[in-house]
Design brief:
By secondary structure, this protein is an alpha/beta fold. It is built from eight helices and 13 strands. Strands 2-1-3-4-5 form a five-stranded parallel sheet, sandwiched between helices. It has a five-stranded antiparallel sheet with strand order 9-8-7-6-13, with no helix packed on it. It has a three-stranded antiparallel sheet with strand order 10-12-11.
Amino acid sequence: MSKKLIYIIDDEADICDLIALELNRHGYETRSFQTGAQAIYALNRRKPDLCVIDLGLPDMDGIGLVRQLCDTQGLGVIIISGRSSTSDRVLGLEFGADDYLSKPFEPRELVARVNSLLRRLDQIDSASRTAGALRCARFAGWEFNQSTLTLTRQESGDEQVLSASEAALLTLLLKAPRQILSRDQLLQGHADPFDRSIDVRMSRIRKKIEQDPRNPTIIKTVYGAGYVLTAAVEWLAGGQ
């Protein structure tokens, strides 16, 4: 089996070297870039499995690059940044990043988060490759395809790509329709202990599927208990 490829995007060469050394020790292949332009050029030639990106890039807005990366199907994104405020973490997750780690960080913690995210991506990929697997869900006028991490509006055909973490969260809800799921249940398999990460990702999903995200009817909040998907769900063996 080929090694997972991880791109490290940080303007500090020492940080890149530190991350690369730790990831290489755990069996990953890495490439490092000090500018956003270098990373984009490499991405167009070979897509990695995951990107670790610092927001403070010298040639472009890091958040803009995060948005571009998160639109790439099946690509995991972890932000590392010296911006450690709650608002910065929320902003990073709102733009679609799967995880956010503040500097200074413990390299072993970064490896744990990389492992966790890549496991989620592998689980999604494995489900899509299983012959006859029920991997498409129809609900409330939408179709979610686990093979492509896409949401399609059945009426118009409009399509949106979910991040790995958004897809994992939506899958949990779709597999337990009309059941209240607590934050602990929704956090299963996630290395990110950030208390608001579930709320931020839920907000992003709602913006994609709800007619009025501020007054959701498909995914409702049950205060003090968790979230519930109110719609009936039909699982199919692929897009039908």
